[in-house]
Amino acid sequence: MDLVPAPSGKTPVKSPVVEVEAVEAVDVAEQVEAETVALEDASSEFETDSDGSEDWDTLSHGGDTIQFLRDEQLRDGLVPGACTLDEAVAFRQRLHDIGKAAFVEETIAREAVTAKKLCTAFGIMPPAFLEGAPDESYHPLLAIALSREFARRPKLPQYNTIEDAVRLLQESKNIVVLTGAGISTSLGIPDFRSKDTGLYSKLEHLGLSDPQEVFDIHVFQEDPSIFFSIAKDILPTEKKFSPTHGFIKLLQDKGKLLTNYTQNIDNIEANAGVLPEKIVQCHGSFATATCVKCNFKVLGDAIFSDIRDGKIPECTACPEAIAQEALKPQGLKRKRSSNGQHKDRKEEFDDSSDDDDYEIPTPGVMKPDITFFGEDLPDEFGQRLIHHDRELVDLVIVIGTSLKVAPVAEVPGILPRNVPQIYISRTPVSHTGFDIDLLGDCDVVVSELCRRAGWNLQHHMIPADEAVEVTPLEGHESRHVFKVVGA
Ligand SMILES: [Zn+2]
């Protein structure tokens, strides 16, 4: 955690309510609120100073939205009165070197630079509503900017090129792989968090006020048919997997896979042959299902045909319990409610009550063990990350996720900062600093990495004669764009 206090009086460090961009706000606001807190607690004992909560693209500040600056804007001198990119980089380095209190002393307190200008060094655009105000007015913003920067893991300067990435793959022995929806989209599995391309557009006709309600546990308890009306669309239909899943399996075969933390609930890692003990399904999965009444558990396969038919799968254990209940003498019937659940019934054995509290016993609904909004995340995540992987990990590879959903979003900040981190996705993220960004279709990126590493990643979706062109992203020595030649 961040142990450096803010300069008293002037710069409250408490972050404002995080107002995520429209698309994300639908998906993550609740989860992040709940989970960030839990994870902060878990990580504080390890003195990490990632607080996560401020690593977003927009923040609200007294109702006005704060605009963030990109390094390109500083480099190109597009913002009047802003730092140059060189100045900004120097200020950031200095902050990490000496800490927040000393940094503020050295800069603002000595009037070496204005708070307004310093905000730009940390990527915050001086807002129009403060124009003309005294420099002190910028102190709260600067506090946000400094906390945000300080929480950020600094990029390791020695890792930049594709060759660096390939060498890291070859030399690392304990790789943590973080994955998200992007590794399954090439299989036609929709990203259910994405508003445009995902499932949410299909949900409008269900009359939900917020599409996220489909994954809300309270909505499920009230009417499971809503979830099961779309479940078939996110259920893996065949035992297929993408080249990227194949890549994770290849890391396992080479004895290099420490853990694959996945946000995906499709359980496709298993299709590729990744061992259950190598996977943490951070949001649960369809691999198993549990009766909401008696907690009877089955393998996901057992309910897949019902799901595909659009039916609500029912518990097979409940009817037996109901039948046994029926055989009992009348007086004992209420000893246990027919569905095994604790209900607010009258006292057990209370025969004086009227009979009108008898319900017709029905079997429970089988709920896939994916984590709904409003449910606790599987414990395994924090336990394994902090008490096992943190000591061992020597390379982090993040694939196909924008890392905006906790808890996976917190992982890069929790792991030791000297462990190199590689990012593979279509677009770079600005809120977390990776050492090397490999941009493009993740199936293409991993197949090219394997080719260069001399590894044999065979998959029917990778053409035998595939040629991939890699070009640096202008202005970034550590960002590289992967494109299939002729595509
Ligand atoms: Zn049951």
From TrEMBL:
<dbReference type="GO" id="GO:0046970">
    <property type="term" value="F:histone H4K16 deacetylase activity, NAD-dependent"/>
</dbReference>
<comment type="similarity">
    <text>Belongs to the sirtuin family. Class I subfamily.</text>
</comment>
<keyword id="KW-0479">Metal-binding</keyword>
<feature type="domain" description="Deacetylase sirtuin-type">
    <location>
        <begin position="155"/>
        <end position="456"/>
    </location>
</feature>
<dbReference type="Pfam" id="PF02146">
    <property type="entry name" value="SIR2"/>
</dbReference>
<feature type="compositionally biased region" description="Acidic residues">
    <location>
        <begin position="349"/>
        <end position="359"/>
    </location>
</feature>
<dbReference type="InterPro" id="IPR003000">
    <property type="entry name" value="Sirtuin"/>
</dbReference>
<feature type="active site" description="Proton acceptor">
    <location>
        <position position="283"/>
    </location>
</feature>
<dbReference type="InterPro" id="IPR026591">
    <property type="entry name" value="Sirtuin_cat_small_dom_sf"/>
</dbReference>
<dbReference type="InterPro" id="IPR050134">
    <property type="entry name" value="NAD-dep_sirtuin_deacylases"/>
</dbReference>
<feature type="region of interest" description="Disordered">
    <location>
        <begin position="329"/>
        <end position="361"/>
    </location>
</feature>
<keyword id="KW-0520">NAD</keyword>
<feature type="binding site">
    <location>
        <position position="294"/>
    </location>
    <ligand>
        <name>Zn(2+)</name>
    </ligand>
</feature>
<dbReference type="GO" id="GO:0005634">
    <property type="term" value="C:nucleus"/>
</dbReference>
<keyword id="KW-0808">Transferase</keyword>
<feature type="binding site">
    <location>
        <position position="315"/>
    </location>
    <ligand>
        <name>Zn(2+)</name>
    </ligand>
</feature>
<keyword id="KW-0862">Zinc</keyword>
<dbReference type="GO" id="GO:0046872">
    <property type="term" value="F:metal ion binding"/>
</dbReference>
<dbReference type="InterPro" id="IPR026590">
    <property type="entry name" value="Ssirtuin_cat_dom"/>
</dbReference>
<feature type="binding site">
    <location>
        <position position="291"/>
    </location>
    <ligand>
        <name>Zn(2+)</name>
    </ligand>
</feature>
<dbReference type="InterPro" id="IPR029035">
    <property type="entry name" value="DHS-like_NAD/FAD-binding_dom"/>
</dbReference>
<protein>
    <submittedName>
        <fullName>NAD-dependent protein deacetylase h.t1.c1</fullName>
    </submittedName>
</protein>
<feature type="binding site">
    <location>
        <position position="318"/>
    </location>
    <ligand>
        <name>Zn(2+)</name>
    </ligand>
</feature>
<dbReference type="GO" id="GO:0070403">
    <property type="term" value="F:NAD+ binding"/>
</dbReference>
